[in-house]
Amino acid sequence: FNNSALQYLSISMFHVYTSEIDPDCFKGCPNLTKLDLIQSSIPTSDSKVQQLFSTLPSLHRLDLSLCGLRNISNRTFSSLTSLRTLILSNNRLSSIPDGAMDALSQLRELYLDGNQIAVVSDRTFSDALRRGLVYLDLSDNQLVCNCSMLWFRTWFVTQQPLFAGSRGSYLCANLIHTDMFNFPVSQQSCMFSRQVYVAMFAESSTVLFCLVAGLAIAVRRLRRVTRRVALRDLLNMRRLQHMINNDGEQVFDYDVFVSYAEEDGHWVRNYLMPEVEGCLGLRLCLHFRDFHPGRPILDNIEDCVERSQTMVVVFSPHFAASRWCQLELSLGLHHCMERGQDLLTIYLTDVPLHDLTTGMAAVLSSCTCLCWAEHGPEAATFRTSLRAALPVAQ
């Protein structure tokens, strides 16, 4: 249509002649003021629709009824700054983007009836556009009557002349036999619902965050423990393989693991070490000497108990008060049961009954103990019994 004098053009039902209107077909019609494209095959691409109208700065009236439009954007009609009447009736529009009509500063009549629009937000039409409109038709859409449409109900009630003459009805799509202006929702109930929703969302978010954080911490700890256990099992396997000689017999790095309280260390150094290592030639495992620096205490205890042929525990009030001694006692009992050995117990000083731990009480009630004596016949008896109970040096 290369005619600069053309002011009115109607090419309704254009799909009969061609599959789609050429986006450049109106380039030669800069003075066109009225354009009817009813039931025509306009381009489906939004950029092509924008191109189709980009050369019509003088257009006052545009009718796109029954054109199968599914969506529009903020740029679709941005070049039609002189447009006063826009008819988009009976298309397939499901929404109107916020600000899609803001560029149409001269718009006075807007027909959106017969589409599938569900919600019209209070940002869809700018304040300037609302003040300029003299007619708006949103009837026969799929309007959802809820809190988000309260503003529209208020606008309709206060600006009834604007909607007068609408060609259809304003029924709620989500409420049977209820129109947009009588649906049972109030501003107060919406405000309360919003506050409740915000409170519930905040509370649920906090709970969810705590759950996720707790789960993340648990997973991280589980991975750490799993790696540690796997590494320990691997080291134990290698160590056990190393502890088997060519004859298939187990070889130990230590003859005796000694579990005692630090406060009783003077007795261990001044008596037990000279007697057992000096006279009997046995190798003692002592925490102050044989634990690896920097290694976790629990790993040191487990490793040294495993590498020792037998175990001696030195009972005293200090032993009863030490949690590490109680842990060593528990591990020692476990290993002795696995190997079918007896746990050698030395009663260094009397322990009040109320200070005895469960493990110590179990040992005293089921095993014969050696009672330490420094002088007299009891000292000789202790020395003889100790030598008989310890393994023979290899």
From TrEMBL:
<feature type="transmembrane region" description="Helical">
    <location>
        <begin position="196"/>
        <end position="219"/>
    </location>
</feature>
<keyword id="KW-0325">Glycoprotein</keyword>
<keyword id="KW-0677">Repeat</keyword>
<keyword id="KW-0732">Signal</keyword>
<dbReference type="InterPro" id="IPR032675">
    <property type="entry name" value="LRR_dom_sf"/>
</dbReference>
<keyword id="KW-0812">Transmembrane</keyword>
<dbReference type="InterPro" id="IPR001611">
    <property type="entry name" value="Leu-rich_rpt"/>
</dbReference>
<comment type="similarity">
    <text>Belongs to the Toll-like receptor family.</text>
</comment>
<keyword id="KW-0433">Leucine-rich repeat</keyword>
<dbReference type="GO" id="GO:0038023">
    <property type="term" value="F:signaling receptor activity"/>
</dbReference>
<dbReference type="InterPro" id="IPR000157">
    <property type="entry name" value="TIR_dom"/>
</dbReference>
<feature type="domain" description="TIR">
    <location>
        <begin position="252"/>
        <end position="390"/>
    </location>
</feature>
<dbReference type="GO" id="GO:0005886">
    <property type="term" value="C:plasma membrane"/>
</dbReference>
<keyword id="KW-0675">Receptor</keyword>
<protein>
    <submittedName>
        <fullName>Toll-like recptor 14</fullName>
    </submittedName>
</protein>
<keyword id="KW-0472">Membrane</keyword>
<dbReference type="InterPro" id="IPR003591">
    <property type="entry name" value="Leu-rich_rpt_typical-subtyp"/>
</dbReference>
<dbReference type="GO" id="GO:0007165">
    <property type="term" value="P:signal transduction"/>
</dbReference>
<dbReference type="Pfam" id="PF13855">
    <property type="entry name" value="LRR_8"/>
</dbReference>
<keyword id="KW-1133">Transmembrane helix</keyword>
<dbReference type="Pfam" id="PF01582">
    <property type="entry name" value="TIR"/>
</dbReference>
<dbReference type="InterPro" id="IPR035897">
    <property type="entry name" value="Toll_tir_struct_dom_sf"/>
</dbReference>
